[in-house]
Amino acid sequence: MPSADPAPLLVVLDLVGIFVFAISGALVAVRKELDLFGVLVLAGATGLGGGFVRDVLIGAVPPAALADWRYLLVPAVAGVTAFFVHPTLGRWERQVNVFDAFGLALFCVVGALKASAYGLEVVPAALMGMLTGIGGGMLRDVLAGRVPVIFRGELYATPALAGAALAVGGVELGLPVVVVAPVAAAVCLVWRLLALWRGWQAPLPRGSASV
Amino acid sequence: MPSADPAPLLVVLDLVGIFVFAISGALVAVRKELDLFGVLVLAGATGLGGGFVRDVLIGAVPPAALADWRYLLVPAVAGVTAFFVHPTLGRWERQVNVFDAFGLALFCVVGALKASAYGLEVVPAALMGMLTGIGGGMLRDVLAGRVPVIFRGELYATPALAGAALAVGGVELGLPVVVVAPVAAAVCLVWRLLALWRGWQAPLPRGSASV
Amino acid sequence: MPSADPAPLLVVLDLVGIFVFAISGALVAVRKELDLFGVLVLAGATGLGGGFVRDVLIGAVPPAALADWRYLLVPAVAGVTAFFVHPTLGRWERQVNVFDAFGLALFCVVGALKASAYGLEVVPAALMGMLTGIGGGMLRDVLAGRVPVIFRGELYATPALAGAALAVGGVELGLPVVVVAPVAAAVCLVWRLLALWRGWQAPLPRGSASV
């Protein structure tokens, strides 16, 4: 089993990503008029869900977040914050989306490298990286009773898959992880920010949908 | 790995809790006009789902319920019962809620102690205990196509978290489990029954929800 | 841990089953007007979801599909195919249902035997076999925002449970697996095809549903 002692910078980045994802989950809960508990659960599910699903699938249980109180405190703080100051956060939606893109870039790379460290090959590890990035949002939407927004045209998963694939592919080719990881995260981040800025959409099926 | 030989009384209580949860799942399925199979699945998911999710997260697989036929028989009996006598059960909704509170009190304490026995620290173990109590109902609601009712103001998860936290906290402080567990379960039970009786609600976000 | 070197014929059958299930998932996504990514995720979730849930519950992680690129390629091909030729596939719905019945028959038997090989007893192993057959479709429907269709009267899960129970029961009685498995799969298949042809329904609850 791989060492579980990541660099302090990585932990800080990870916690920032969880915080931003948790904010997005809490805002969905507030919009759905859920109570404080629902806000906290959606904050936690969005911030930690992707990593939990990945860890369960690759056999890394209990998930790291259950062994480190900071990973549980951060989504709780995000949930309580959103519960009380959601009108302000709502006005900052554009900025939240930008932070969310940072979270996505980080999660897809870290998730893919962790899956690779647990013995998965390149393609499944890249998929696990993508799942780390998008799984929390999917869980949030299922719990909130809506079809995941990332299935509805928003270009979100493709940058995550690209970043994850670059990260594990580069490491597989023998490139140093300190070079590969930032480049892969940057590709995901820039692609996602361009998609936000330009309104890029994922392709929709053509023709009659009444199959 | 901890011993899997709980006291007979605990097994009986556990089975009673599963039965009551399964009844609540089957009644939701009947209301949604699902077929017999849907009723059985929702009975099983509600009765066993919380424990399954906890066991998968803490690495206790296969879940204990899959190694003991009684844990599979009980939700099946509950499902078939509800399928045939649901009008009667509907009239007993108040009593079902009271039994459900017993199930919640039991599950949160047993779940928290099991997570603790698998090496989780106090806070994550308490969360796993709460998840054991509320996870089945959440799974029931997602499968039935509705937002989990426990996100909608009902005071349900907080008593579960309190009971779970008292149980693992007390054991951590060196108190004997035969004292801590009943006290923790009683706190959860009384709190939940008071919430039912007085109509206590969890707090809702203030102000415009149109963030 | 059991050997993971199944016969080539079984792998081919398995991939055919995954392909057909993935087509059904992709068609639901197209009907819901999801984008290409949503189509691919629903294809993958439907084709692989049942096996993933089974593997996580019996402790066979990472799931076999994550260690074999063919298991990831097949749902991707199915998703892309359905994305582009869905009007044609829609006209073939009857044939898709027949292939789906083959997939169900195969998955329930293979899933039950795998659970048995991981040490589960007859009843839980049969349930795991049924879950392998129906889990993908349930996950598809939850992600697509609808109550699982198999809860709504269609006779689908009962043939799967029968096939799974016959398979593990026969092996438990000492019968050779090369005899038991095809017979069990044939029972599931014929039952399911008859249900499709005759419009057999699972029983619905009687009386007022307004409990």
TrEMBL record, chains A, B, C:
Lineage summary: Bacteria, Bacillati, Actinomycetota, Actinomycetes, Propionibacteriales
InterPro entries: Gly_transporter
PANTHER family membership: INNER MEMBRANE PROTEIN, UPF0126 INNER MEMBRANE PROTEIN YADS-RELATED
This protein's name: Putative membrane protein YeiH
Residue ranges of the TM segments: 6-29, 36-57, 69-86, 98-117, 123-143, 155-171, 177-197
GO CC term (a single one): plasma membrane
Family the UniProt entry places it in: Belongs to the UPF0126 family.
Key words, A-Z: Cell membrane, Membrane, Transmembrane, Transmembrane helix
